[in-house]
Amino acid sequence: MNSVSLFVSKHLKLIEDEHNEELNEKTKCRDQFSTSELLKKGICINKLRIINLKTGLYGRYIITFTSTSNNALASHCFTAGDILGVYHNKDRELIVSGVVTSITEANISVAIDENCDTLSQDETNYCLIKLSNDVTYRRLKNALNILNRYPTNNRASNLIAVLFGKTLSEPLCTPRLEEIKFVNKQLNDSQRESVMFALRQKEVAIIHGPPGTGKTTTLVEYVVQEILRNLRVLVCAPSNVAVDNLVEKLVENNVKNVLRLGHPARALPSSQKVSLDAVLAASDDYRLIDDIRREIDGLRKNTGAFGVRTEIKQLIKELKRREKKALSESLFKSKAIVSTLTTAASDGVLKNLLRSDCPENQFDVVVIDECSQAIEASCWIVLTFAPKCVLAGDHKQLPPTIVSEKAAKEGLEVTLMERLLDLHPQENIMRMLTIQYRMNEKIMQWSSSRFYDDKLVAHESNANSTLSDIVGSVNISPILLIDTTGCFMYELEVDDEHSKGNEGEANLVTLYIQSLIDLGVDSSTIGVITPYNLQVEMIRNRLSEKYPNLEIKSVDGFQGREKEVIILSLVRSNDRREVGFLSEYRRINVAVTRAKRHVAIICDSETVCHDSNLNSLVEYASAVGEVRSAHEYESKMKQFDDFARPEQVKCKTAKPTKRNRDNTNRTTVKPSKTTAEHKQQISEDELKRRENIKQKYLKIVSNFVNSVDTRYSFPKNLSSFERRFVHEISEQFDLCHVSKGENKDRIIEIWKPTDCECTPQSTCSSTEEVVTPKPCISLEEDEIDEKLSIKKEAENISKTSQKKTKPKQKVKAMKENGNVKVKNLSEQLKTTDEENIDELIATVKKMDSVCSFENCKSKVSVLGLNCQFCKRRFCLSHSMPEIHGCGDDVRALARSVARKEGKLYPGTGVPTKKCDSVRHAQLQRLLNKKVDELSDKRKPKRK
């Protein structure tokens, strides 16, 4: 079998798997879910009545439904071209099926081929449910079979050969091409080069358009140039929205003879006037066609009369003949035909044009926009129509939507654009647009460096654009990171694995948007993006009623869109550090690059940073943007206590980790316990196991110290718990130690320090943690700044300690004990000259690794806590402020909180969080069970 036959046989199987999966999913939804559940999923619209029934193209019935309450239709995911079923609400019995032709806010129109006498305009309770699209599957299958049987000497034969590996032909080099005058004078150099490249190519050209680089503008200029050369162009895209964008741009450029097949997704005048219906309405035969349709409509209202059905059939036959003639004339006159990929199938409207023997009626070029969002099989619906194709898209943004995971893994998700870039040298087949006109330079730079080889350049008009340009009162960085780490804002668990939510993040989004609007930012300029539908629903519950112009959508809903402000909620926060499909880098790339002036990222960095791309985003935002902790918003969270959770939510916390799965009643949201309390809960077997592990690695490290070896690497299979022991033991032996790598490749390495070197031989990545017990004697230039900063820090500590007010006698004694090391350091600093600064650095580093409490020698490099008042590090035993001498400060904080809240709280002075009712009931059952067990033990045993 040749490469084409192998490709066809493989993809026939894959699209069959995909179709079956889609069919099973839709059938399961219809059979298992109630109407209310289908409404929530957006695949059902109920309580409808018929307001119009007329004859459409080829004699089809066009039925228009509206809400029985005359209000806007319920929220749904129907689009033009979708297959749906018409049902009675009461019995869920299918009456007829049809295709959505148009949708407005209040109405939905459906085209039906079969007889619809059973539908009545008097009936007031119809229901529409989305069905699986058999038409698309049949057209995909037919296109692949045509490809497999395509003659070797036909118009598209050479193109097919190139798309399956044949070397590209030499580009055209004619004087006529060099004299081209661009219609759009605003094109930049990379756009002009891409247009010229596409014109010169004989078989295939790819225009790679990263976010905001004007890909559609460039593509339209290419189409215009081909039309000026008197060529016929078929322009396609996977979705109706993308097709409408192309039509709008073509009309703006005054392109004549444009024809838009299918039904526009948006009611734009530019799209409507070049639609097929509008063009037919302007034809010479339209008046007669319209008269025949009206006559058919009148007869259909009187179907009971004798001979009426026969007359209707004859009129429909005449109608089809005249419509076919008018349609053919419109197609032959059009130089640019614009359509979705599936609408352009050879068995559809284009069949009259494709079957023409006249070469002038054939297509010269096929253009596919957003090619990276279409499966390759759908591209083959149109690729055999012409000897040349031009593809445009960005394979670093959203991939095609595929239901079957099996089909996706086996190759269905690999797009034509990706396959060609792997098949041919990129410089021979692709040109990339490099000037972006959307984002502030700081927002752009992460995406550019991570996905586009640092080639993107922000245009001067938007490079430094900020929110202050449109709202003077707003002075904020283009990038903001709000980190929820340590704030117990865990994700919610639901039955649907593909939908997750996070109440804490939803509340933060609401608070932050409210603050922006209070400063004067228009709600219509703000967009909220989150990967999960449940989170979309939760945020809408909090904001949509108050701000109806605020857009809150999933990543897919914002593809190709832009907003001045984008708020991104990443949702995932769990002890397992799982990020799910957030690891799909293309989704994050799309989400971040929708923002023009400001992007706010709300996430749990401890969870999301386990993915390399998300980790790079968090690190970049921390480096160039503003970072806030969710703790700053904690005092305002009470207002959200009354918000009801969605019905599908099971519990408030994430699933327990593997090590805690035996204790199913334990919730992950708990305040941290003291070491003593924790040890009480550890069993004797567990303590023995830990001691054995510690002795095992103590022996390994001890043998290494006594050996002649200078370096030792531990295997990859060590757990984080075992690596912690190795770090602690290495500290005891004054060894250098480092953890490097990520996830399963993370290892720990130890080595003996030398007089001149105390760093690993290989360069460490940003994720490595290096601990060195001794400072280097020989200094490099880049170490001088570090020394000076340490010296300055020591001076600040000294000044701070001198400025402290005198407390009570008991506390004073405790503070003196705690500050002895700092005072010694201060005195040492005064007597240290520049040459002996190494000794001072060694002292500071040693202080950082040992508890700051006097006479305490506990190591705190791995386990230790920083005091928020004196900023020094203590072991767990001395970490409480009252113990090491900061008692006055913590009491002052408690008084401050009491003044602000108007209430005195016990303990730390911080208000306790409202107890979760589910958790409270769970704990109550555990308590009752424990009491019963203890009561049974106290009963006297029978003798």
TrEMBL record:
Gene Ontology terms for molecular function: 5'-3' DNA helicase activity; ATP binding; DNA binding; hydrolase activity; RNA binding; zinc ion binding
Does ATP-binding appear among the keywords? Answer: yes
**CC per GO annotation:** cytoplasm; nucleus
Region Disordered: list its residue ranges. Answer: 652-686
Locations listed in the record: Cytoplasm; Nucleus
Q: Which residue numbers delimit the R3H domain?
A: 687-754
- Top-level class of the enzyme under EC nomenclature: hydrolase
Q: What is its EC number?
A: 3.6.4.12
Keywords for this protein: ATP-binding, Cytoplasm, DNA-binding, Helicase, Hydrolase, Metal-binding, Nucleotide-binding, Nucleus, Zinc, Zinc-finger
Q: Which Pfam families match?
A: AAA_11, AAA_12, R3H, SMUBP-2_HCS1_1B, zf-AN1
UniProt catalytic activity: ATP + H2O = ADP + phosphate + H(+)
Q: The AN1-type domain covers which part of the protein?
A: 845-894
Q: Which PROSITE patterns match?
A: R3H, ZF_AN1
Main localization, broad class: cytoplasm
InterPro entries (UniProt xref): AAA+_ATPase, AN1-like_Znf, Coronavir_polyprotein_1ab, DNA2/NAM7-like_C, DNA2/NAM7_AAA_11, Helicase_ATP-bd, P-loop_NTPase, R3H_dom
In which residue ranges is the amino acid composition biased (Basic and acidic residues)? Answer: 675-686
Entry's family note: Belongs to the DNA2/NAM7 helicase family.
Give the matching NCBIfam families.
Answer: IGHMBP2 family helicase (TIGR00376)
UniProt-recorded name of the protein: DNA helicase
Please name the source species.
Leptotrombidium deliense
